[in-house]
UniProtKB/TrEMBL annotation:
Keywords: Plant defense
Protein name: Disease resistance protein At4g27190-like leucine-rich repeats domain-containing protein
PANTHER family reported for this sequence: NB-ARC DOMAIN-CONTAINING PROTEIN-RELATED, RPP4C3
Organism: Ilex paraguariensis
Domain Disease resistance protein At4g27190-like leucine-rich repeats: 36-123
Amino acid sequence: MLRSFYPNSDILFCGQVYLPSMEAMIIKNVVKLQFMKEAVFDFEWLKVRGRDVEVTFNQFDSLFLYGLPQLTHIWWMVPKEFQGFKNLSWLIIKKCHSLRYLLSPTVVKLLVNLQELGVMDCEAMEEIISMEQDGSKTNVVEEMAMDKIVFSQLRHLNLVDLENLTVFCSGKYECQFPSLNSVVIRNCTEMKNFCSGPICTPKLERENVKIGKQEVWMGDLNTTIQCADSSFIEKDEDEDEDREIQKMRIRMELKMMKMEMKVMEMKMKVQ
């Protein structure tokens, strides 16, 4: 059983590991994570010197995390000078029941190409964006001075079966989603507001916003969620309500097929 890329260690990634050509990562059904802070990318251990780590993580296109019940952080102690993950376009998280927060504002600034964000069946998830996520006191000070959070390329947002999720972002930031054209929020019974600050979603329309059982749109996500009654967000087992999630899975499968074809092409070139 793979425990680490580094001998005699419980750290998944450390400064001795360089994967300059890795474009996607899938971590699935790892019951016990023992590396420090139970994080995937722990920058207290990563050797951030020169451009090695930046080059490594700038190749990432997709990150899929499934069934990691002990995972408490994805990113931990990200240095303020770090500039990686700029090509990450897919971030899908499912059944990671110890995750309370997903992203910090510092990490959001790095994800300039993120196009698909899906968070599903994570029992402890309270917020998607939180200053408590990163662990760096320096970053928290800078994040408090920020006035907006921008997902410039995000097109699809799916929040499903998050029973403790109360808000996407509780900070007083202006949240900007200039490319967002599809939103699904389902079985998030504690969610009463999308964000605490103003929100800009110029491309969202009624037929592309699904809150619980119905397509509904009141002009902005905050007002839409505030006006939605329990029938929009209650637990629902109707298979017909999974259409948007199925669309996301189809997109993901197509993406994986393209990746497999790319690997085959590379093998043929080597031969």
